[in-house]
């Protein structure tokens, strides 16, 4: 890599909850740290985040703004940029989209994932409002309303059963899932939960006066619904890890790096945290994972430097 170079002790790639949490620990440990933030948080469509003790109901943008202010107090540098290449060596060399090149002894990958939504008219427009995916994130706010669940894989049965905890009026639209794909256990559980099963493809959502009012099937039938749950296809943003040759493992939600309990990947000196290492990392889990990785990296650097003097 050519061009300007800047040395850091740690580069954090990704400025969401996981990356900022790691940077906060490292900054407080007096480590020269750079956060590279492309500004694409997964929860950007949501008006509020829930389930984070003491931050329940806070807008995600406000949460991140406070996090950026906090890391700045400890001298952590943050740039709005994108890491486009990374190479190992004595130090890791990271190329940014702006043309800047930076180096660091350790790297934390906190690039998260992207949600690919079902291509049903109305879903993308209402996502984060009355089209939702996580009952733990939004179930309380829409409790006891008329739910619809849009099936895209046989695993959608699990989602339909889960959301029945928050409403007893749940309709499961099979959409892309043939009724024959449902097992006897699926049908028994759906019946026990009071979930109505509706076969047939969904043509689109009915939106009236800026709110969801129904689900329209391909045959023209409309089912009145106030909320629809979908299961986006998770697309892990693991390109940098793949460039480094990190060992990956297949999951029902995509391929993620193999990591140890601190987030260390199979590449020495490279950690993965937040949704870069797993699908189910909610904000509070991501922040905890970033904290753990940051603390471990600081200790590792400390003892590595001490051992050089022996």
Provide tags for this entry.
about 300 residues, alpha/beta, seven-stranded mixed sheet, five-stranded parallel sheet, 8 helices, about 25% helix, NAD(P)/FAD-dependent oxidoreductase, oxidoreductase, flavoprotein, FAD/NAD-binding_dom, Ferredoxin-NADP_redctase_2
Describe this structure in words.
- A hairpin with a 4-residue loop joins strand 12 and strand 13 (212-217).
- The chain is built from 8 helices and 19 strands.
- Helix 1 (17-28) runs parallel beside helix 2 (60-72) and helix 1 runs parallel beside helix 8.
- The two termini are 34 Å apart.
- Strands 1, 2, 3, 4, 5, 6 and 19 form a 7-stranded mixed beta sheet that branches.
- The protein has 310 residues and is an alpha/beta fold.
- The longest helix is centred in the C-terminal third of the chain and has 26 residues, at 283-308.
What layout of secondary structure does this protein have?
Blueprint: E1 5-13, H1 17-28, E2 33-37, H2 60-72, E3 77-80, E4 83-87, E5 92-96, E6 101-109, E7 113-116, H3 123-126, E8 131-132, H4 135-138, E9 147-150, H5 156-163, E10 170-173, H6 184-192, E11 196-198, E12 202-207, E13 212-217, E14 222-224, E15 227-229, E16 233-236, H7 239-243, E17 248-251, E18 254-257, E19 270-272, H8 283-308
Parallel strand pairs: 1-2, 1-6, 2-3, 6-19, 8-15, 9-10, 9-15, 10-11
Antiparallel strand pairs: 4-5, 5-6, 7-16, 12-13, 13-14, 17-18
Helix pairs in contact: 1-2, 1-8
Organism: Streptomyces lanatus
Protein name: NAD(P)/FAD-dependent oxidoreductase
Catalytic activity: [thioredoxin]-dithiol + NADP(+) = [thioredoxin]-disulfide + NADPH + H(+)
């Amino acid at each position: 890599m050519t061009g300007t170079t800047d040395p850091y002790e740690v580069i954090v790639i990704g400025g969401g909850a996981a990356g900022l949490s790691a940077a906060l620990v490292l900054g407080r440990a007096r480590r020269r740290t750079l956060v590279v933030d492309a500004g694409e948080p997964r929860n950007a469509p949501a008006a509020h985040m829930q389930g984070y003790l003491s931050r329940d109901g806070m807008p995600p943008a406000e949460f991140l703004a406070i996090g950026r202010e906090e890391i700045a107090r400890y001298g952590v540098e943050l740039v709005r940029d994108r890491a486009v290449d990374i190479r190992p060596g004595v130090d890791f060399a990271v190329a940014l989209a702006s043309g800047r090149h930076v180096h660091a002894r350790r790297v934390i990958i906190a690039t998260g994932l992207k949600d690919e939504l079902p291509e049903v008219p109305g879903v993308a427009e209402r996502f984060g409002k009355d089209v939702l995916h996580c009952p733990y994130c939004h179930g309380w706010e829409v409790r006891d309303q008329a739910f619809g669940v849009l099936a895209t894989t046989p695993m959608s049965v699990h989602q339909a059963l889960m959301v029945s905890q928050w409403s007893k009026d749940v309709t499961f639209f099979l959409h892309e899932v043939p009724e024959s794909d449902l097992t006897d256990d699926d049908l028994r559980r759906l019946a026990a939960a009071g979930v109505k099963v509706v076969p047939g493809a969904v043509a689109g959502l009915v939106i009236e006066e800026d709110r969801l009012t129904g689900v329209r099937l391909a045959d023209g039938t409309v089912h009145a619904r106030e909320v629809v749950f979908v299961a986006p296809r998770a697309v892990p943003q693991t390109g940098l890890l793949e460039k480094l040759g990190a060992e990956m493992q297949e999951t029902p939600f995509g391929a993620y790096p193999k990591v140890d309990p601190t987030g260390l990947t199979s590449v020495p000196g490279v950690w993965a945290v937040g949704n870069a290492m797993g699908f189910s990392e909610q904000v509070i889990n991501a922040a905890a994972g970033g904290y753990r990785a940051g603390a471990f990296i600081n200790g590792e650097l400390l003892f590595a430097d001490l051992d050089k003097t022996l």
